[in-house]
Amino acid sequence: MLGLLEPLAVAPMVLVAVLCLWALLDCVRTPGERVRYVPKLLWLLFLLSAPVVGGLAWVYLGKHREPRECPENTTKGPTHGVGPFVQKR
Q1: Helix (H) or strand (E) run with residue 10 in it
Q2: Model confidence, pTM
Q3: Is 37 left (phi over 0), alpha (psi -120 to 50) or beta?
Q4: Of 16, 17, 40, 59, which has the maximum CB count within 10 A?
Q5: Do residues 53 and 19 make contact, with C-beta atoms less than 8 angstroms apart?
Q6: Which residue range(s) make up the domain with 42?
Q7: Cα–Cα distance for residue pair 89/56, rounded to 1 Å
């Protein structure tokens, strides 16, 4: 008979396993020039030796964020030339 505590005990283990697997795959797929602080091989060894701490460290410290692409023709402010704050040329 399955008790209520068994699913509650399995859920954290599943979350830890997902975090560790995701961090490992993300580290392997990340280009070497985006990895921060230590070489990629050391990150992989850290992820394998200390999965929970390593996974959290990878998420927050492991790689540079991807640059966001700005849409072309971005303007700030009104697109028309009327109003009290428009500078005259």
Answers
A1: helix 5-29
A2: 0.61
A3: left
A4: 40
A5: no
A6: 9-61
A7: 53
